[in-house]
Design goal:
By secondary structure, the protein is of the alpha+beta class. It is 29% helix and 32% strand.
C-alpha cells in the first residue's frame, strides 16, 4: 500500500503541475475571448437593428412632410371666363392648378454627430422588399458620408434626383437583409424605383449591368450617359475587399 501511495505522489511532477496551470489559464482566456466575441456580435446586431429603425424613422418623417406639403384635392383646376362667343356666353379657359405642390425646399436635418443633410428622395427595390430614404449631405466629405451611411443609403455623386445623368447611391452591406446587403443579388432586368420628394415623382429603372471594382475605382460615377437618366448603386462585397456596382437606366 505504501508503495502505491509513493508512486502516485511521484507521478504528479512539477512539469505536470505547470502544464495543468497553463491549460487552466488557456481555458480561462478562451472563455473570456468567447464572451467578448459573443458580446461584440450582440452589440453589432443591436447596432444594425438601431440603424434600420433610424432609417425607417427618417423615411417616415420625409414622407409625412411630403404629404403635409401637398393639398389633397390636387386635381381641381381653376378656370376663368374669357372670349365671349356670338351667343353672349363665355368660354372657360384653364389657367392654373392652385393645388399643385409648390414646395421647392427639402427640410434640412442634423445627425447626432452634427452633420446637416436632406432626404433627397426614396429608393424602393420590390424584388428585395426594401425601401429607404436617400440622404444627401451638405459637405459631401468622407467623414460626413460615413456618418450618414450608418443611418440610410446616401447620394454619393451625380445630378439632381431623377434627372439626366448618373445619380449614384452608396449603401452599407451588413451581410443580412438590411440596407444594400442584398443589392448584389440583383440581375439584369430587375426594377429599382426612385421617388423624388420635391415633386413626388417616381421613376422606374431597369438594371442593365453588374460588376465589381477595387475600392478606389470611381469610374462608375461618370456622367457620360449620352443623355440618358441613370442610377448607380454601390456597396461592398461580403469581405469588403471590392465594391459591387449595379447600373440601371430609366425605363
Amino acid at each position: 500500500m505504501n508503495q502505491i501511495l509513493v508512486t502516485k505522489k511521484l507521478y504528479i511532477t512539477p512539469e505536470l503541475k505547470r502544464k495543468k496551470k497553463i491549460y487552466k489559464a488557456n481555458f480561462i482566456i478562451s472563455v473570456f475571448f468567447l464572451i467578448v466575441l459573443i458580446s461584440v456580435y450582440i452589440y453589432a446586431a443591436y447596432d444594425r437593428d438601431k440603424a434600420e429603425a433610424v432609417s425607417q424613422d427618417i423615411l417616415a418623417s420625409a414622407e409625412a412632410e411630403q404629404v403635409d406639403n401637398t393639398v389633397v384635392d390636387s386635381d381641381i383646376l381653376v378656370a376663368v371666363l374669357n372670349d365671349t362667343i356670338d351667343d353672349g356666353t363665355e368660354t372657360p379657359v384653364v389657367v392654373s392648378n392652385p393645388n399643385k405642390n409648390t414646395n421647392t425646399n427639402k427640410t434640412k436635418q442634423q445627425s447626432q454627430s452634427g452633420y446637416t443633410y436632406i432626404t433627397d428622395g426614396k429608393i424602393t427595390i420590390p424584388k428585395l422588399g426594401i425601401e429607404y430614404g436617400i440622404l444627401d449631405g451638405e459637405t459631401d466629405s468622407e467623414a460626413e458620408t460615413e456618418e450618414l451611411l450608418k443611418m440610410s443609403p446616401v447620394k454619393f455623386h451625380g445630378p439632381e434626383i431623377n434627372t439626366e445623368g448618373n445619380y449614384c447611391i452608396v449603401g452599407h452591406n451588413y451581410r443580412n437583409k438590411r440596407f444594400f446587403s442584398k443589392v448584389p443579388t440583383l440581375v439584369n432586368g430587375d426594377i429599382i424605383q426612385i421617388t423624388d420628394f420635391l415633386d413626388n415623382r417616381t421613376i422606374e429603372y431597369e438594371v442593365y449591368d453588374k460588376y465589381t471594382v477595387v475600392p478606389d475605382d470611381v469610374s462608375c460615377t461618370s456622367q457620360n450617359t449620352d443623355g440618358r437618366t441613370e442610377i448607380t448603386l454601390i456597396t461592398c462585397t461580403d469581405d469588403s475587399s471590392l465594391r459591387w456596382i449595379i447600373k440601371a437606366k430609366a425605363i
